[in-house]
Amino acid sequence: MFLVWKKLRLSKFTFTGNMSLTLTENQTFNQDGKFISALKIPHSTNTSGWGSLLLPVIIIRNGDGPTVLFTGGNHGDEYEGPIALRKLGNELKAEDIQGQVIIVPFLNFPAILKGTRLSPVDGLNMNRSFPGDPDGSMTQKIADFVYRELVSRSDVVFDFHSGGNSMIFEPCTVLHKLEDSEQMKKTVLAAKSFGAPLSLVLQELDNKGMLDTAVENAGKIFISTELGGGGFVSPRTLTIAENGIRNLLRHLEILPPDELLVPQTRFMQTPDFGGYLMAPQEGLYETLIELGESVTKGQVIGRIHSLTQIEDPAVEVRAQIDGVLVTRAGRAQVKIWDTIAVIATDLDVSDFETNSTD
Ligand SMILES: [Zn+2]
Hints:
Blueprint: H1 2-7, E1 20-22, E2 33-42, E3 52-62, E4 67-71, H2 80-91, E5 99-104, H3 109-114, H4 138-150, E6 156-159, E7 167-169, E8 172-175, H5 181-194, E9 198-201, H6 211-217, E10 221-226, H7 235-251, E11 266-269, E12 276-278, E13 283-287, E14 294-295, E15 300-305, E16 315-318, E17 323-329, E18 333-334, E19 339-346, H8 350-353
Parallel strand pairs: 4-5, 4-6, 6-10, 8-9, 9-11
Antiparallel strand pairs: 1-2, 2-3, 3-5, 7-17, 8-10, 11-19, 12-19, 13-15, 13-18, 14-17, 15-16, 17-19
Helix pairs in contact: 2-7, 5-7
Bound molecules: zinc ion.
């Protein structure tokens, strides 16, 4: 990786504040070719007084066509995106595509380097920091650059997540209910094209500052994923990520069509907050249900064993609605109010699947 940086020259493009994008000579976002570059952000530390953070940005363009932005590592303990996008950036050639692919494999790079959900530099959650602030802290600066310089050029934004250290998901794409029916239709079709086992229309508990919200409010197509979790990757989740990227690129006609059959996705939703189960007390969580299993309202799906009241019986956790377990705690040790299970129900999206669009 360092060899790559040595080849780079500082850009002629200077963004707001003291950031700059390092680009190869004469390269712009409008030039055909493949450019491995980096956003350079001044970062003074105890060991590097005048140092900088170099955030990798890969720009691949060939002629006119749609632009898609892929981001991974929004949270630093979620790894399918960083691995799949790093591989995509290495493998994809400009002549393979029609349009533009922008890849930021390690969005919250300091968090990725540390293996933490939040940035170790300023303690911020990248996905609560959009649209960002050019004069803010490291995380806010990155968010501002991504929103202002990359999202603004993109038709579709695809942001990879998984459950991180604290949760595990049945692999899914994630979307939200949108008021604009045309935007919703394009989003549903994009999620369908990716071909994850589930597509979850999620009721966010806290959507302020999310990249999702910022892109959706700009009227663009936004999809994210929850591909697994627990701080590791599996062959299954990485395969879903890598195949899904190419399926989506074919759907957008950035890659040529292929005969390959896209796996069917099951659309589901978290219909209300009854689908989210929080730990009623701290202790060790014993999960009784595998991800993807159906549950019925009132069914005991887990138990919490107190570590201090050892004579007390375990506290039962019951499903509040009929549905399918799509998320569970990624760690046995839970604190009170941790999200320990999410139950989703089937969703009919047939209204949005007719009349194919781009
Ligand atoms: Zn995440």
